[in-house]
Amino acid sequence: MKRDMILITGASSGIGRAIALHLAAPGVLLHLGGRDPDRLEAVARDCAARGARVLTRRQDVRDVEGMAEWIGGAGPLDLVFACAGITASTASRAAGAPREAPGQVRRVLDVNVGGVINTVLPALETMSGQARDGRGVRGRICAIASVAGLVAFPGTPSYCASKAAVDRFMVATGGNTARDGILLSSVCCGFVRTPMVAANDFPMPGLTEVDDAAAAILRGVAAGRRRIVFPWWLVAGSRLMDLLPPRLAELYYSRQPAGQAGSMPETGGMSS
């Protein structure tokens, strides 16, 4: 897998940071984007210490024009990783059932879905003009979805919806782009030890260390897998749960600690 020119969103923290550090090496050019300039520069220093050339950009993935300018002006790209994302849960109300605030729903969808679209579309344009390598590949694009996208979890409705959209978009679009030599991958993973889940005060089955997650993602991308899953048993169990009638599944989900209102930050925790 050619990995000389790489662009990563959400690179200042979590999975994006871990992928950047894994790929940093002499001869590698890293384009790193994020919203926190101090953390982004810290990651850039660590990557540069490993021999990589690093260019950083403070960039909100919701900015359509800004993303197009950044990615379109980056030059040739071998690998693109859409790692920026947020999570949030329902909140208790004085009267009635728990619910997400309208602004929170829109923000989660704008960042998690819109941010991926704003990354993938200009990356596709760039890669479409590149020559194929010896294996017929022009470039590879990977987006971080989630096992949450495979279920309808009442504690995090907009998060589940956003990750389902990311997974379906990447998997379905990848069937077309593969014929043009551009390989797309969706990552359906469980809990990964990152700042995003640091405040969770409930059991997180299958919790994966962030370096292990980055290594699994890179192996999957190198193998050209359309959907990268881990831990497999959590993803398999989630798929089985989603076959149940919604009311039966909710009886289980609503009794889990993560299904309670306020189990995650109400306004969402950025992974970038």
TrEMBL record:
Protein name in the entry: SDR family NAD(P)-dependent oxidoreductase
Tell me the GO molecular function terms.
Answer: oxidoreductase activity
UniProt cross-references to PROSITE patterns, sorted A to Z:
ADH_SHORT
Mind telling me which SUPFAM superfamilies this protein's record contains?
A: NAD(P)-binding Rossmann-fold domains
Family designation: Belongs to the short-chain dehydrogenases/reductases (SDR) family.
What taxonomic classification does the UniProt entry list for its organism? Bacteria, Pseudomonadati, Pseudomonadota, Alphaproteobacteria, Acetobacterales
Q: Which PANTHER family does this UniProt record tie to the protein?
A: DEHYDROGENASE/REDUCTASE SDR FAMILY MEMBER 7B, DEHYDROGENASE_REDUCTASE SDR FAMILY MEMBER 7B
| Protein keywords | Oxidoreductase
InterPro entries named in the record: NAD(P)-bd_dom_sf, Sc_DH/Rdtase_CS, SDR_fam
Origin, by domain of life? Answer: Bacteria
